[in-house]
């Protein structure tokens, strides 16, 4: 049984296709496997940020289904960087370039995009549904049932926040370069992802620096993981907040370049009559193939795994090297 190690903007995952198994892993086995293999100490290849689980769809217009298990074993409704790598996997498996992938809350349109650089394949994925309603995240705020560029003194009094579900929950603030690099993001991220009166299910927290016209740098502390090199749904949600709260700088229906500690992606925010959706375009890189017996997979035994490295990480790092140097925020490998 082969599983792949993949990344989108150095947001790393192991990708497991349940349809390749005689017997699928149970939910508990998926959690056990995920918490073990993603841990830098107990896992493989310096661990990862989660596991992407591919399975047959239950909706007829979808080619397959994707589930997202965070490194701590919690399940998320979506993963933008992960969906790009799953789309590449399915495009190869079914020899198609445009299709839908069933996720927890929606069947999302995905399509092959032009390579970002030589040997750096890219995919475009739909990020939706979008909701600003407090109960969609959920969040509890004494004054607001929705939060678009509002202060929230109990969190960080000098910042303004936007809260949006895409559909996983995101809390976003546009900040200075110094604030982005400060310890505030980690402190707030930890605080809102342990029992707290504001976000009962936790929340992905992003600080964004506006670099110019349709240009951002986004750093995210992820629910269920901690700091990642990039958060696809976080960069997408931030792009939507950008267009809504800084319309002079961030435009709907224009490509927004979003830099992050792991590289760069593009987003495109669309406003339709009732709602919004976002296109997230970026790399889908396969760094390793792992050969593991089905029995070891079920038992989360990782001491007899054959690992083959691809040539793609070298190409991806060459792509990153030619990007403008914006922040020296360390990349978590
Ligand atoms: N930690 C997220 C799931 C992974 C999202 C992120 N890796 C992405 O690329 O969107 C959550 O619990 O909502």
TrEMBL record:
InterPro entries: DAP_epimerase_AS, DAP_epimerase_DapF. Pathway: Amino-acid biosynthesis; L-lysine biosynthesis via DAP pathway; DL-2,6-diaminopimelate from LL-2,6-diaminopimelate: step 1/1. Keywords: Amino-acid biosynthesis, Cytoplasm, Isomerase, Lysine biosynthesis. One of its GO terms (cellular component) is cytosol. Its main location: cytoplasm. The record marks 170, 222 as: Could be important to modulate the pK values of the two catalytic cysteine residues. One of its GO terms (biological process) is lysine biosynthetic process via diaminopimelate. It comes from the Bacteria. Gene3D superfamilies: Diaminopimelate Epimerase, Chain A, domain 1 (3.10.310.10). Its EC number is 5.1.1.7. GO terms for molecular function: diaminopimelate epimerase activity. It catalyses: (2S,6S)-2,6-diaminopimelate = meso-2,6-diaminopimelate. The keyword Ubl conjugation does not apply. Pfam families: DAP_epimerase. It is found in: Cytoplasm. Substrate binds at residues 11, 70, 80-81, 168, 204, 222-223, 232-233. HAMAP family: DAP_epimerase. NCBIfam families: DapF. Catalyzes the stereoinversion of LL-2,6-diaminopimelate (L,L-DAP) to meso-diaminopimelate (meso-DAP), a precursor of L-lysine and an essential component of the bacterial peptidoglycan. Belongs to the diaminopimelate epimerase family. Homodimer. This is Diaminopimelate epimerase. It comes from Pediococcus ethanolidurans. The lineage of its organism: Bacteria, Bacillati, Bacillota, Bacilli, Lactobacillales. The gene is dapF.
């Amino acid at each position: 049984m082969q599983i792949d190690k993949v990344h989108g903007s150095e947001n790393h995952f192991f990708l497991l296709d349940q349809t390749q198994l005689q017997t699928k892993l149970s939910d508990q086995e998926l959690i056990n496997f995920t918490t073990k293999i993603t841990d830098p100490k107990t896992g493989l290849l310096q661990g990862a940020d989660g596991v992407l689980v591919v399975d047959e769809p239950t909706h007829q217009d979808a080619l397959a289904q994707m589930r997202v298990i965070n490194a701590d074993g919690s399940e998320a409704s979506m993963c933008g960087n992960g969906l790009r790598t799953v789309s590449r996997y399915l495009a190869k498996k079914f020899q198609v370039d445009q299709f839908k992938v069933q996720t927890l809350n929606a069947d999302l349109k995905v399509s092959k995009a032009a390579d970002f650089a030589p040997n750096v394949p890219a995919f475009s994925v739909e990020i939706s549904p979008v909701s600003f309603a407090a109960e969609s995240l959920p969040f509890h705020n004494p004054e607001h049932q929705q939060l678009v560029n509002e202060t929230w003194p109990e969190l960080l009094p000098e910042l303004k926040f936007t809260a949006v579900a895409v559909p996983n929950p995101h809390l976003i603030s546009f900040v200075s370069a110094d604030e982005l690099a400060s310890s505030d993001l980690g402190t707030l991220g930890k605080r809102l992802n342990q029992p707290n009166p504001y976000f009962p299910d936790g929340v992905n927290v992003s600080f964004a620096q506006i670099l110019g016209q349709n240009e951002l740098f986004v750093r995210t502390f992820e629910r269920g993981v901690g700091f990642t090199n990039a958060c696809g749904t976080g960069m997408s949600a931030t792009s939507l907040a950008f267009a809504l709260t800084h319309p002079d700088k961030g435009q709907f229906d224009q490509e927004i370049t979003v830099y992050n500690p792991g590289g760069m992606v593009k987003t495109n925010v669309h406003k339709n009559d009732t709602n919004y959706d976002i296109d997230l375009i970026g790399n889908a890189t396969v760094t390793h193939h792992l050969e593991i017996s089905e029995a070891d997979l079920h038992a989360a035994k990782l001491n007899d795994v054959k690992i083959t490295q691809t040539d793609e990480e070298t190409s991806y790092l060459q792509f990153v090297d030619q990007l403008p140097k914006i922040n020296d925020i360390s990349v978590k490998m």
